[in-house]
Protein: CsbD family protein
Amino acid sequence: MGFMDDAKDTAQTAGRKAGEAWEDTKDRIDDKVDEMKAESEVKKAEAERDSVEAKNEANERMREN
Structure:
């Protein structure tokens, strides 16, 4: 029975390690997705800021004339 117990333990350990590797990979993917979303939000905010600045500058030029 010792051989069967060892094989069972080895299979369980391999399964556990595979599960942990999958969770690590999933976490890395989730982190990358979150990073990309944050970068997208920053770019959107920067574009909105630039748009507001351009609009304000145009309004200021119109007031000067």
User: Anything to note?
Assistant: The mean pLDDT is 93. Helices lie at 2-64. The CA atoms of residues 43 and 49 lie 10 Å apart. The chain is about 95% helix and 0% strand.
